[in-house]
Amino acid sequence: MSVGYQRFESVDLTGTSDSYAKLNNNPQFHEVDRLFEDRLRQFIDKNGGYKDLNLPKFYDRGRIDKKKQHDDDQIYIGLQVYSVPNLQRPLFKEVIPEKLSEFKSSSKGDSFGPGWATFWFRITFKISQSWIDAKQQILFEWDCGNEGLIYSKEGVPQQALTGGGERTEFILPESWYIDGEEHVFYLEMACNGMSGGVNGGSRFSLSKADLVLPNVEARALHYDFWILSDAARELSATSWQKHKARNLCNEIMNAFDPNDEATINKCRFLAKSFLGKDIDSAKVYDKKVKKIDVYAVGNCHIDTAWLWPFAETKRKVVRSWTSQINLMERYPEYKFVASQAQQFQWLKKYHPEIFSKVKAKISETQFFPIGGSWVENDTNLPSGESLSRQFLLGQRFFLDNFGFKSDTYWLPDTFGYSSQIPQLCRLADMPTFLTQKLSWNNINRFPNTTFNWVAIDGSQVLCHMPPDNTYTASADFGDVKRSLAQHTNLGTDQSGLLLYGKGDGGGGPTPEMLEKLRRCRGLTNTVDSDLPVVQVGPSIEEFYENILKTTNNGKTLPSWKGELYLEYHRGTYTTQAEVKKFMRSTEFLLHDLEYLATLASVQYPDDYSYPLDTLHEIWENTCLCQFHDVLPGSSIEMVYKDEVKPMLRKNLQKLGNLIEEIFDIFKEKQQVKQGSTSNGNVVCINSLPFPRSGLFEISNERYASLSLDIKNIQTGYKNDKNLVYLESASDSYHIMKPIANRIKNGAQISYNEKDKTYILSNSKLKATINSNGVITSLVDLANGEREVISLSDSGRNTRGGNQFVVFDDQPLNFPAWDTELYSLDKYKYLENPTKIEIVSEGPLRASLKVKHSIGAESWISTTISLDAVNDEAENDSGVSFLVFENEVEWHETYKFLKVEFPVDINSDFASYETQFGLTKRATHFNTSWEAAKFEVCSHKFADYSDFNYGVSILNDSKYGFSIHGNLMRLSLLRSPKSPDATADMGHHEFKYALYPHKGSLGVDTVRAGYIFNDRLSSLKKDESIFTQGLDSDIFPQLVEITGDSNLILSNVKRGEDDEGISSVETNLQKKFVGSKTIILRVYESLGGKSKGFINVDLPIEKVFKVNLLEEELEEIDVVEGKDGKNGFDITLRGFEIASYRVVFSN
Ligand SMILES: [Zn+2]
Fold first, then answer.
1. From the CA of 621, how far away is ligand 1's center (Å)?
2. Residues 1006 and 1107 in one domain
3. How far apart are CA 113 and CA 1114, in angstroms?
4. In 3D, which of 1029, 1011, 1099 has the Cα closest to residue 729?
5. 193 plus 81 within the same structural domain
6. Which residues contact 2 (CB under 8 A, 6 or more apart)?
7. In which order are the strands placed within the sheet that holds 1076-1084?
8. What is the rounded CA–CA span in Å between residue 975 and residue 815?
9. If you measure from the C-alpha of residue 634 to the centroid of ligand 1, how many angstroms do you get, rounded to a whole number?
10. Are 980 and 1045 in a shared domain?
11. pLDDT above 90 as % of the chain
12. What per-residue confidence (pLDDT) applies to 630?
């Protein structure tokens, strides 16, 4: 007897109906997978022709939109509306009750506008006893295609409604109707979509204002079927689970009867055979699993400004986060992260009651503040100090308000990440980093998902890029699947983060996303499949901790050194030039103010108090404007015109005024010292941390008071200004005085009639400029008469330096953001100047002015100057540069203006200044990775050097650069028409300079970058100029750094935790009661371990090395310094950023 025979015996082959039949009279067809899969869409399609024959028929058990008509009406809903005048955005308390008399009757079908207008609705309603008796949720459904926020009658925000079919339902709190009486609530309507998307003419039509009694089970079946049918479509074709899911879906559809509501339960029973029985609660996540594959965390990326202004963002925050708090109440497993201290601060100010709710949800570990920076900032353009302040402000806000710091620098959407970010992160106490933006690369695919990202100094952060390549996932089956399937280094890490939730314009996760995730997890709990195990519940912190646990503390992970260059959005280094210039000026003047205020407050504590609160305000505004769609130039006109430019202008004015106040103190002290006598000399303040010399502009009136022996007779200079040559005094490099004698070897200019060229020269350089204003030769006289310009036929530009080029600039996408590789092939050189003239003949400054027409209404006027150098000066560094000052009238369309310098240098790499260091990039296009960097970001200078010689290009406000072959190219102005059609139109002023130097890149270039950007000497009323003189005992050199000159003392400020310099209430402890402290920031600028000494003018009690948050890392010994002063030794790694706290003895 065979085994098989036995089996058949047990199955029963007797031929009865419940056994295997002998005859087959009912043939079955072989499944046609595609048809049975396509059919599934019909079951939950709300808009299809079969919707009344399928599940949508049952979504509502009742729906009412009728107004009250009779006194005894049992159920009704009524609307009244108040139209806020002048596009204002008043708070609840400014409208109710004050404006109640101005509310007018309104109803479904009404339309509202224009774009950016605000309306307040008063909603009255009553629920009938039969609905109350159903003992289930009752919904208010509202859709006007724009954003709204529901307020209780007491004025407490409840939940946002975003329209367009998204987030249109609000579960009415039971207490609002349970008594069967009429109740009232309010709704604030903002006439803009989630993604802005409006113009002045926009109107929004109210399509829904209903009371709904939903069929909860029918809606649950909708989610069941959604995930099941996704499984049928997306599970691996070779898995039995895919086919089983499809069959099950078909079975559900067959079991469903549109005339029998009870069949819904039967359908759900079938669904649960595949999804498990726990999908209706958080219990589904309790099942023990061997391994969590996907960690799902909610977020709501609120761009702080973009296609809407800051003013709207303040409302987006309260809208988005109240919705999320609501979700947390309904879904206990739910965790949500929100970044940007600025947004928390707005919430705290405008909606303190919601801020308290957020804090409660933080303590219940459902709401997680994250990010550690003031906003989700750009990291290409802000200075090193700006990035430091993003963290100082951000982390201290978190500490002050929540009692903890963020571990993670959260920048999902920023346009590329500079090579110093890992170091700055570690110094801000953030060991982990998150972005996904590199998935947008338009040339190369970034090779790692989880990796160690290493800064130029060697510091590392643990970086994860969510494999789903989005931070706004819908939490679909496919999102869960891709969160592992698209992980690019599964060999070393086997987990993925899924960031879900409506985003960009805020919003965040919707209930349906949490319902879908429960079902995805239910599926993996119930049937084996290739769907990864998703968990809702662990925090981002736990996610990163798990990676460290499974990778031997990250040691087995791949690493990536240097910048995370985004191969996209390369136009953002240039777009909105004026904002970028304001930012550079702000950064420099903030440096100056902090240095001067530190000095004055320490030196003259009775006369001057450090303005910490005002500085915070200015820094907060500055950091706000560094948001990743603001400073890069990708916001709408309204953002720049109404908010950013006025804010930055006001900042600059404030900075000027505050600096003037400090100067007044020094002037007064000097006056007291010397009485009415004046030494007749002019003195200028140098706020930079090294000695310098050079020309300063001075009014004729002040010039007249100078003693004769120091005046050089300048020919042809501007009428109302004169020039004076100053250099740092020997006892303090912060005080600049006129040199004792006149300049001997001045600058000069001559015209050569024969070949129609101009020769501009001083003792260091000789430039030949042709009739087109182009430098055809630049000879370095001091270094063997070396020619700097290359007119080689093998180069792209054979014309010469300062050649303007206008490129066609028609990117494939995102005009304000993008410029494409192909644009480099279509261009025109500017030729035939409309005017060329000598405007200054020397001996202090020799200048030639050239004007070119660009288009019908556009022109550029360039003044090319060479200044005298004082060869005999004690501090003469031998630095001389050719300066190009430009005025442009710019009215172009999709054109990109750049300037080119072909130079006689050949090296594989060029250096571009970045925050506190350099980023080196190839000057060739060997690989697609190098070609992708055809346009890159640079700060104050870019340098192209070989072993013997180099050329630096300095700039005062530009960031776009490229150096390839023998060509150095600086990007000047763009003209994208979207999203701001007026971007960069109008007048511009900027300057750049060419600095040739012997040897490779050195400290002279680093210093020249600072000198060229000095704003102090150009403050509006000559504030930095002291005509009565200034002595070093009145204006002492508080701090001086000696030793390796590549160590730069970049910033000096007072300690944040000093007593008596702030009147703002804070939970942070004042650590230095009774003492004064200063913070010094030093960085190694060129890439090599270096030693130095910090000499301090006042008696030091203690010195600590601190991090960017001014938290102590280690104590440092105080030793004797020069001239009887004291100080301390420092040693820095190459490109290290080091901060020190000096505590002064009392
Ligand atoms: Zn964004």
1. 18
2. no
3. 60
4. 1029
5. yes
6. none
7. 1047-1054, 1076-1084, 1137-1144, 1100-1106, 1112-1116
8. 9
9. 10
10. no
11. 86
12. 98
Query: Encoding tokens for residue 711?
Result: 């005046």
Phi, psi at residue 333, to the nearest 5°? -75, -15
- The domain that contains 875 carries what CATH number? 2.70.98.30
Residue where a domain terminates, one of 535, 568, 601: 568
Note whether 564 and 585 are same-domain residues.
no
Q: What pLDDT, on the 0 to 100 scale, is given for residue 328?
A: 98
Q: Is residue 478 part of a domain?
A: yes
Please tell me the distance between residue 628's alpha carbon and the centre of ligand 1 in angstroms. 6
For residue 818, the CA-to-ligand 1 centroid distance in Å is: 16
Q: For residues 66 and 1032, give the distance between their C-alpha atoms in angstroms, rounded to a whole number.
A: 82
Cα 438 vs. chain centroid, distance in angstroms? Answer: 15
Q: Are residues 811 and 877 located together in one domain of the fold?
A: yes
* In a shared domain, residues 515 and 582: no
Measured over the CA atoms of residue 522, residue 528, residue 531 and residue 536, the dihedral's sign is positive
Give distance in angstroms: CA of 1076 to centre of ligand 1: 40
pLDDT at 706 over 80: no
Residue type, position 402, single letter? F
Query: How many CB atoms lie under 10 A from the CB of residue 1145?
Result: 11
- pLDDT over 70 (residue 632): yes
- Using CA of residue 741, residue 744, residue 747, residue 751, what is the dihedral sign? positive
In a domain, 1031, yes or no: no
- Whether the pTM exceeds 0.85: the reply is yes
Is the confidence at residue 410, as pLDDT, over 60? yes
Residue 738 belongs to some domain of the structure: no
Burial class, 277, CB count within 10 angstroms (exposed 0-12 / middle 13-18 / buried 19+): middle
Between the CA of 1093 and the centroid of ligand 1 the distance, in Å, is 43
Beta strands 408-410 and 936-937, pairing class: unpaired
Distance CA 658, CA 618 (A): 11
Q: How many domains does the chain have?
A: 6
Q: Which domain holds residue 621?
A: 570-678
Span 994-1004, pLDDT tens digits: 999 999 999 99
Q: Please check whether residues 528 and 542 belong to one and the same domain.
A: yes
Residues with CB under 5 A from ligand 1 (ion): 303, 413
First-to-last alpha carbon distance for the chain, in angstroms, is 105
Using an 8 Å Cβ cutoff, are 515 and 558 in contact?
Answer: no
Q: Is the pLDDT of residue 1067 over 50?
A: yes
Last residue of a domain, one of 568, 590, 617: 568
Return the pLDDT at 831.
96
State both tokens at 602: 């320490």
pLDDT digits (tens, 9 = 90+) for 416-471: 999 999 999 999 999 999 999 999 999 999 999 999 999 999 999 999 999 999 99
Q: What is the dihedral of CA 355, 357, 362, 367, to 10 degrees?
A: -90
Q: Which residues contact 919 (CB under 8 A, 6 or more apart)?
A: 418, 419, 456, 562, 563, 911, 912, 913, 936, 938
- Extract the tokens encoding 753: 């009639």
Q: Are 723 and 714 in contact (CB under 8 A)?
A: yes
CB 845 within 8 A of CB 695: yes
In the numeric block, the tokens 């409604």 are attached to 161
Comparing CA positions, the residue from 584, 583, 610, 582 lying closest to residue 596 is 610
Assess whether 250 and 327 both reside in one domain.
no
Query: Residue 861 and residue 830: Cα distance in Å, rounded?
Result: 12
pLDDT at site 14: 55
Give the residue numbers annotated as catalytic, written as ranges: 413
Residue 835 lies in a domain: yes
